[in-house]
Amino acid sequence: MKTSNTKTPKSVLIAGPCVIESLENLRSIATKLQPLANNERLDFYFKASFDKANRTSLESYRGPGLEKGLEMLQTIKDEFGYQILTDVHESYQASVAAKVADILQIPAFLCRQTDLIVAVSQTNAIVNIKKGQFMNPKDMQYSVLKALKTRDSSIQSPTHETALKNGVWLCERGSSFGYGNLVVDMRSLKIMREFAPVIFDATHSVQ
Protein backbone atom coordinates (compact mmCIF):
# COMPACT_ATOMS: atom_id res chain seq x y z
CA MET A 1 0.00 0.00 0.00
CA LYS A 2 1.09 3.57 -0.64
CA THR A 3 0.13 6.80 1.09
CA SER A 4 -0.16 9.95 -0.94
CA ASN A 5 0.21 12.73 1.63
CA THR A 6 3.42 13.84 -0.09
CA LYS A 7 4.34 14.61 -3.70
CA THR A 8 5.91 11.17 -4.02
CA PRO A 9 3.66 8.39 -2.66
CA LYS A 10 5.34 6.31 0.03
CA SER A 11 5.03 2.58 0.67
CA VAL A 12 3.65 1.85 4.13
CA LEU A 13 5.79 -0.37 6.36
CA ILE A 14 4.53 -1.68 9.69
CA ALA A 15 7.15 -3.39 11.86
CA GLY A 16 7.78 -4.22 15.49
CA PRO A 17 7.24 -6.96 18.07
CA CYS A 18 3.98 -8.88 18.16
CA VAL A 19 3.49 -8.10 21.84
CA ILE A 20 5.20 -5.76 24.31
CA GLU A 21 7.59 -7.72 26.52
CA SER A 22 9.43 -4.85 28.21
CA LEU A 23 10.48 -1.25 27.58
CA GLU A 24 14.06 -2.42 27.17
CA ASN A 25 13.00 -4.85 24.46
CA LEU A 26 10.93 -2.17 22.71
CA ARG A 27 13.88 0.22 22.70
CA SER A 28 16.18 -2.46 21.31
CA ILE A 29 13.83 -3.30 18.45
CA ALA A 30 13.03 0.36 17.76
CA THR A 31 16.75 1.11 17.49
CA LYS A 32 17.31 -1.70 14.99
CA LEU A 33 14.40 -0.44 12.89
CA GLN A 34 15.79 3.09 12.57
CA PRO A 35 17.31 2.58 9.09
CA LEU A 36 13.87 1.60 7.79
CA ALA A 37 12.09 4.33 9.71
CA ASN A 38 14.48 6.92 8.27
CA ASN A 39 14.00 5.71 4.69
CA GLU A 40 12.35 8.59 2.84
CA ARG A 41 10.51 6.17 0.57
CA LEU A 42 8.68 4.54 3.48
CA ASP A 43 5.80 5.66 5.68
CA PHE A 44 6.88 3.77 8.81
CA TYR A 45 4.72 2.66 11.74
CA PHE A 46 6.04 0.92 14.87
CA LYS A 47 3.68 -1.87 15.89
CA ALA A 48 3.33 -3.60 19.25
CA SER A 49 0.38 -4.96 21.23
CA PHE A 50 -0.33 -4.15 24.87
CA ASP A 51 -2.60 -7.20 25.16
CA LYS A 52 -3.03 -10.29 23.00
CA ALA A 53 -6.53 -11.28 24.07
CA ASN A 54 -6.80 -14.19 21.62
CA ARG A 55 -3.99 -16.43 22.85
CA THR A 56 -4.53 -20.18 22.49
CA SER A 57 -3.66 -20.98 26.10
CA LEU A 58 -4.88 -19.33 29.30
CA GLU A 59 -1.30 -19.52 30.57
CA SER A 60 0.23 -17.75 27.56
CA TYR A 61 1.77 -14.31 28.05
CA ARG A 62 -0.63 -11.61 26.86
CA GLY A 63 1.29 -8.39 27.44
CA PRO A 64 1.60 -5.66 30.08
CA GLY A 65 -1.99 -4.47 29.75
CA LEU A 66 -3.62 -1.29 28.51
CA GLU A 67 -2.21 1.33 30.88
CA LYS A 68 1.38 0.13 31.17
CA GLY A 69 1.53 -0.88 27.52
CA LEU A 70 0.41 2.52 26.27
CA GLU A 71 2.89 4.24 28.58
CA MET A 72 5.70 2.24 26.98
CA LEU A 73 4.46 2.94 23.46
CA GLN A 74 4.30 6.66 24.29
CA THR A 75 7.92 6.46 25.44
CA ILE A 76 8.94 4.93 22.11
CA LYS A 77 6.96 7.60 20.28
CA ASP A 78 8.67 10.37 22.24
CA GLU A 79 12.19 8.95 22.05
CA PHE A 80 12.21 7.80 18.41
CA GLY A 81 9.52 9.96 16.83
CA TYR A 82 7.77 6.89 15.42
CA GLN A 83 4.15 6.68 14.40
CA ILE A 84 2.48 3.94 16.45
CA LEU A 85 0.12 1.08 15.61
CA THR A 86 -1.51 -1.08 18.26
CA ASP A 87 -4.53 -3.36 18.25
CA VAL A 88 -7.66 -3.22 20.38
CA HIS A 89 -9.96 -6.08 21.29
CA GLU A 90 -12.72 -4.28 23.18
CA SER A 91 -14.65 -1.11 22.46
CA TYR A 92 -13.64 0.72 25.64
CA GLN A 93 -9.96 0.45 24.69
CA ALA A 94 -10.31 2.50 21.50
CA SER A 95 -10.55 6.04 22.87
CA VAL A 96 -7.76 5.41 25.37
CA ALA A 97 -5.39 3.77 22.88
CA ALA A 98 -6.02 6.51 20.32
CA LYS A 99 -4.34 9.02 22.64
CA VAL A 100 -1.06 7.27 21.79
CA ALA A 101 -1.59 5.27 18.60
CA ASP A 102 -1.80 6.73 15.11
CA ILE A 103 -3.37 3.51 13.82
CA LEU A 104 -5.78 1.27 15.71
CA GLN A 105 -5.93 -2.26 14.38
CA ILE A 106 -8.95 -4.54 14.62
CA PRO A 107 -7.90 -8.21 14.91
CA ALA A 108 -8.91 -10.66 12.20
CA PHE A 109 -11.29 -12.65 14.40
CA LEU A 110 -13.13 -9.40 15.26
CA CYS A 111 -13.35 -7.93 11.77
CA ARG A 112 -17.17 -7.99 11.70
CA GLN A 113 -17.78 -6.72 15.24
CA THR A 114 -19.87 -3.61 14.71
CA ASP A 115 -19.43 -2.07 18.17
CA LEU A 116 -15.65 -2.39 17.96
CA ILE A 117 -15.47 -0.98 14.43
CA VAL A 118 -17.67 1.96 15.43
CA ALA A 119 -15.65 2.67 18.59
CA VAL A 120 -12.37 2.69 16.69
CA SER A 121 -13.85 4.80 13.89
CA GLN A 122 -15.02 7.40 16.40
CA THR A 123 -11.38 8.19 17.24
CA ASN A 124 -8.98 10.24 15.13
CA ALA A 125 -6.76 7.22 14.48
CA ILE A 126 -6.47 5.40 11.17
CA VAL A 127 -8.60 2.23 11.25
CA ASN A 128 -6.81 -0.93 10.08
CA ILE A 129 -9.18 -3.90 9.85
CA LYS A 130 -7.55 -7.30 9.43
CA LYS A 131 -9.47 -9.65 7.17
CA GLY A 132 -10.62 -12.73 9.03
CA GLN A 133 -9.21 -16.02 7.80
CA PHE A 134 -12.82 -17.12 7.36
CA MET A 135 -13.88 -14.11 5.28
CA ASN A 136 -14.62 -13.76 1.60
CA PRO A 137 -12.42 -10.76 0.71
CA LYS A 138 -15.31 -9.13 -1.16
CA ASP A 139 -17.41 -9.15 2.00
CA MET A 140 -14.85 -6.96 3.80
CA GLN A 141 -16.50 -4.03 2.05
CA TYR A 142 -19.24 -4.18 4.68
CA SER A 143 -16.75 -3.75 7.52
CA VAL A 144 -15.19 -0.85 5.63
CA LEU A 145 -18.61 0.73 5.14
CA LYS A 146 -19.35 0.49 8.88
CA ALA A 147 -16.20 2.48 9.57
CA LEU A 148 -16.82 4.99 6.79
CA LYS A 149 -20.43 5.67 7.77
CA THR A 150 -19.32 6.22 11.36
CA ARG A 151 -16.98 8.93 10.13
CA ASP A 152 -19.28 10.35 7.46
CA SER A 153 -22.93 9.31 7.50
CA SER A 154 -23.43 10.54 3.93
CA ILE A 155 -21.22 7.78 2.49
CA GLN A 156 -23.35 5.08 0.87
CA SER A 157 -20.74 2.74 -0.62
CA PRO A 158 -17.03 2.17 -0.01
CA THR A 159 -14.41 3.12 -2.58
CA HIS A 160 -10.64 3.06 -2.41
CA GLU A 161 -10.46 6.85 -2.61
CA THR A 162 -13.11 7.41 0.06
CA ALA A 163 -11.50 4.91 2.42
CA LEU A 164 -8.04 6.44 1.93
CA LYS A 165 -9.40 9.93 2.56
CA ASN A 166 -11.19 8.83 5.74
CA GLY A 167 -8.36 6.70 7.09
CA VAL A 168 -9.86 3.23 6.76
CA TRP A 169 -7.50 0.42 5.71
CA LEU A 170 -7.74 -3.35 5.29
CA CYS A 171 -5.10 -5.95 6.06
CA GLU A 172 -4.68 -9.30 4.28
CA ARG A 173 -3.34 -12.11 6.46
CA GLY A 174 -4.38 -15.28 4.66
CA SER A 175 -7.42 -17.53 4.37
CA SER A 176 -8.25 -20.93 5.82
CA PHE A 177 -8.40 -23.59 3.12
CA GLY A 178 -9.40 -26.53 5.32
CA TYR A 179 -8.38 -27.18 8.92
CA GLY A 180 -4.97 -25.79 9.85
CA ASN A 181 -4.17 -24.82 6.25
CA LEU A 182 -3.58 -21.08 5.86
CA VAL A 183 -3.13 -19.89 2.28
CA VAL A 184 -2.73 -16.40 0.82
CA ASP A 185 -4.93 -16.00 -2.22
CA MET A 186 -3.25 -13.03 -3.89
CA ARG A 187 -6.50 -12.21 -5.67
CA SER A 188 -7.73 -10.93 -2.31
CA LEU A 189 -5.36 -7.97 -2.55
CA LYS A 190 -6.87 -6.84 -5.83
CA ILE A 191 -10.44 -7.51 -4.73
CA MET A 192 -10.15 -5.53 -1.49
CA ARG A 193 -8.20 -2.73 -3.16
CA GLU A 194 -11.41 -1.85 -5.01
CA PHE A 195 -12.91 -0.46 -1.80
CA ALA A 196 -9.98 0.27 0.55
CA PRO A 197 -6.19 0.63 0.77
CA VAL A 198 -4.70 -2.78 1.56
CA ILE A 199 -1.81 -3.80 3.82
CA PHE A 200 -0.25 -7.25 3.41
CA ASP A 201 0.71 -8.94 6.69
CA ALA A 202 3.40 -11.24 5.34
CA THR A 203 4.51 -12.45 8.77
CA HIS A 204 1.20 -13.85 9.99
CA SER A 205 0.35 -15.11 6.52
CA VAL A 206 3.08 -17.74 6.76
CA GLN A 207 2.16 -19.03 10.21
Automatic annotation (TrEMBL):
Cellular component, GO, one term: cytoplasm
Sequence ranges assigned to domain DAHP synthetase I/KDSA in this UniProt record: 9-207
Location relative to the cell: Cytoplasm
TM segment ranges: none
Coiled-coil regions, chain positions: none
Molecular function per GO: 3-deoxy-8-phosphooctulonate synthase activity
Pfam families per record: DAHP_synth_1 (PF00793)
Metabolic or biological pathway: Carbohydrate biosynthesis; 3-deoxy-D-manno-octulosonate biosynthesis; 3-deoxy-D-manno-octulosonate from D-ribulose 5-phosphate: step 2/3; Bacterial outer membrane biogenesis; lipopolysaccharide biosynthesis
One GO BP: lipopolysaccharide biosynthetic process
EC number: 2.5.1.55
Cross-referenced Gene3D superfamilies: Aldolase class I
Reaction(s) this enzyme catalyzes, per UniProt: D-arabinose 5-phosphate + phosphoenolpyruvate + H2O = 3-deoxy-alpha-D-manno-2-octulosonate-8-phosphate + phosphate
Entry keyword Coiled coil: no
Top-level taxonomic group: Bacteria
Key words, A-Z: Cytoplasm, Transferase
UniProt key word Cytoplasm: yes
Similarity comment: Belongs to the KdsA family.
Protein name: 3-deoxy-8-phosphooctulonate synthase
Organism: Helicobacter pylori PZ5080
